[in-house]
Write a structure and sequence with these properties.
alpha+beta, Sulfite Oxidase, Chain A, domain 2, 6-stranded mixed beta sheet, 5-stranded mixed beta sheet, 5 helices, 11 strands, about 15% helix, globular, binds ligand MTE, binds molybdenum atom
Length: about 210
């Protein structure tokens, strides 16, 4: 078992998929600050506002009418575990753009995810618009578990086999996501204000600010 794990880890390193300072995990650790919020469908909404042509508000029912995609991601946590080829499903931001529901203003440059209990996480707009970001509802074919963000989380991961300078640590995806605020100027999120690096790029090991 252990030998096998080492072999897999060695292979990932040889393939250049293991960022510096990371180790392989096959578990899915749970990490967050504060309690797990309850989901109440009658009060839940998903909002988009700020530097967009028109604000958007969707109920859980409406959100689930949007087309969903399946994606695989390599996840890199700043606490030094990495998990590879994880299988997710959710709504791509591109789907919101294509449906005409969200039109970023030309001056929009950043997006801050707003979650339950005032949690937030900031990212540059180009990362949010890329395939590495997903509004995730399912993991391994099942709805998210409460501790991993049910009913909706912002998820940011690396695309397997496609190492990029835009790969950022997992903290930059907000569990229990309730909205996206588009911004013209960057604003730090919860962990960034607590001392984590503002950009959090994994290949540069941007762990603390
Ligand atoms: N709402 C919320 N989302 C959050 C956090 C949090 O504290 N609150 N922590 C982040 C951090 S630091 C990490 S590493 C990942 C962990 O996701 P996981 O628990 O699914 O592994 O969630 C991120 N999203
Ligand atoms: Mo974290």
């Amino acid at each position: 078992m252990l030998a096998n794990r080492r072999e897999i880890e060695e292979k990932l390193r040889r393939e250049g998929r293991m960022p510096p300072g990371q180790v392989l995990t096959e578990k899915f650790p749970v990490l967050h600050y504060g309690p797990i919020p309850a989901f109440d469908e009658s009060h839940w909404d998903f909002k988009v506002w700020g530097a967009v042509e028109k604000p958007l508000k969707l109920t859980w029912y409406e959100f689930n009418q949007l087309p969903k995609v399946k994606r695989q991601y390599d996840l890199h946590c700043v606490t030094r575990w990495s998990k590879f080829d994880t299988e997710w499903e959710g709504v791509a931001i591109q789907a919101l753009l294509e449906a005409g529901l969200v039109k970023p203003k030309p001056e929009a440059k950043y997006v801050i995810q707003r979650a339950e209990y005032e949690f937030s996480a900031n990212l540059p707009l180009d990362i949010v618009l890329s395939d590495r970001f997903l509004l995730a509802t399912h993991y391994l074919g099942q709805p998210l578990t409460p501790e991993h963000g049910f009913p909706l989380r912002g998820l940011v991961g690396a695309i397997p086999g496609k190492v990029s300078d835009q790969d950022v640590y997992l903290w930059k995806g907000a569990k229990w996501l309730r909205g996206l605020e588009f911004l013209t100027e960057d604003q730090k999120g919860f962990w960034e204000l607590a001392g984590y690096h503002n950009e959090g790029k994994v290949w540069k090991e941007q762990r603390i600010g």
